[in-house]
Amino acid sequence: QVQLVESGGGLVQAGGSLSLSCAASGMIYRINGMGWYRQAPGMQRELVAQITDNGNTDYTDSLKGRFTISRDVLKNTVSLQMNSLKPEDTAVYYCNADLFTTRWERGTYWGQGTQVTVSE
């Protein structure tokens, strides 16, 4: 079994900052990429940012410069620093991992999500 547990969501005023963290645990052989997605009410889940095992990052264009993803490979954690938050950033944020549970078995895993609410 693999678990991804997010933390750090909450309520913040527009212009403020929040940091999210996600820890992967369980039967993990190797993690390829980790990332963050978000889903606002009535909207599809969308990519926020992702990071590979060698540190290459990819961001949704509209979030570049405000959000920063980082990863601790040894601790199997990924973080998301969110600055200059806007009300439209309000969503449930999900951690995601592309990993191997054995040398041959690969899958995509999701956390339960953490709510981020940005007020006017």
Question: How would you sum up the global shape?
Answer: elongated
Percentage beta strand: over 45%
Q: Which H/E pattern describes the elements?
A: EEEEEEEEEEE
Number of DSSP helical runs: 0
Rg, Å, rounded: 14 Å
Number of strands: 11
Helical percentage: under 10%
Structural class: mainly beta
Largest sheet: 7 strands, mixed
Low-confidence stretches: none
Average residue pLDDT: 97
Distance between the termini: 40 Å
Commentary on this structure:
With about 120 residues, the protein is an all-beta fold. Helices cover about 0% and strands about 60% of the residues. The protein is built from no helices and eleven strands. The strands form two sheets. Strands 2, 4, 5, 6, 9, 10 and 11 form a seven-stranded mixed β-sheet that branches. A four-stranded antiparallel β-sheet has the order 1-3-8-7, with no helix packed on it. A hairpin with a 5-residue loop joins strand 9 and strand 10. The model has no long low-confidence stretch (mean pLDDT about 95).
What does this entry show, briefly?
The protein is mostly beta strands and 120 residues long. The chain is built from no helices and 11 strands. The mean pLDDT is 97.
Secondary structure topology:
Blueprint: E1 2-7, E2 10-13, E3 18-26, E4 30-39, E5 46-51, E6 57-59, E7 67-72, E8 77-82, E9 91-100, E10 106-110, E11 114-119
Parallel strand pairs: 2-11
Antiparallel strand pairs: 1-3, 3-8, 4-5, 4-9, 5-6, 7-8, 9-10, 9-11
List keywords for this structure.
11 strands; 120 residues; seven-stranded mixed beta sheet; 59% strand; mainly beta; four-stranded antiparallel beta sheet; 0% helix
